[in-house]
Specification:
Layout: H1 5-25, H2 31-56, H3 96-107, H4 111-122, H5 127-134, H6 138-159
InterPro entries: RNA_pol_sigma70_r4_t2 (IPR013249), RNA_pol_sigma_r3/r4-like (IPR013324), WH-like_DNA-bd_sf (IPR036388)
Pfam families: Sigma70_r4_2
Protein name: RNA polymerase sigma-70 factor (ECF subfamily)
Length: about 170
């Protein structure tokens, strides 16, 4: 499976964390080095939080799921290579409300479910082809698609969306 830009960014952050840890061990116990070590440790924590956020799609340390309610954090948490545009067709793009609803629904899905569902429903690829490209069995692809459909159906049954976007 090919790496996305987000996977590559995570890999670069992890490499930087390792380099910073190596740099920190080279410092001595004098006053200037202690200050440098504090700054390096702060950078390491920030990078680790960033990696965790990119991997999970949720703010590290957030409690009670408040991060899922925030519009600011409802930005598309999906692979932009898989979902280049949320337009249904070129002549009739989705409204902001509809785009937000799609992003919320897609966040409910795991990465594998999102990819399999998109390739199957949006790109209309056969399950066998998806399985080959993702290095999975056809049955695993079917399972991911089924799970995604159940989660989407459950979300819309619970939310009962209105035409006004309320």
């Amino acid at each position: 499976m090919t790496l996305t830009w987000a996977d590559e960014l995570i890999r670069q952050y992890l490499r930087t964390i390792s380099d910073l840890k190596d740099q920190s061990t080279l410092l001595s116990d004098n006053e200037l080095d202690i200050e440098d070590r504090k700054k390096i440790n702060s950078m390491i924590r920030d990078l680790q939080d960033s990696v965790q956020w990119m991997e999970t799609g949720r703010e590290p340390g957030a409690r009670r799921g408040i991060d899922q309610r925030s519009v600011y954090q409802s930005t598309a948490l999906m692979d932009t290579d898989i979902f280049p545009s949320l337009a249904v067709d070129e002549e009739q793009p989705l409204t902001t409300y509809e785009r937000r609803r799609v992003a919320i629904v897609l966040r409910l899905l795991s990465k594998q479910e999102r990819i399999c569902y998109a390739l199957f429903k949006a790109y209309e690829l056969p399950q066998q082809q998806i399985a080959e490209e993702m290095n999975l069995s056809r049955q695993s692809v079917r399972t991911y698609i089924d799970r995604a459909e159940k989660k989407i159906k459950k979300y819309f049954e619970e939310k009962k969306p209105t035409m006004t976007g309320d």
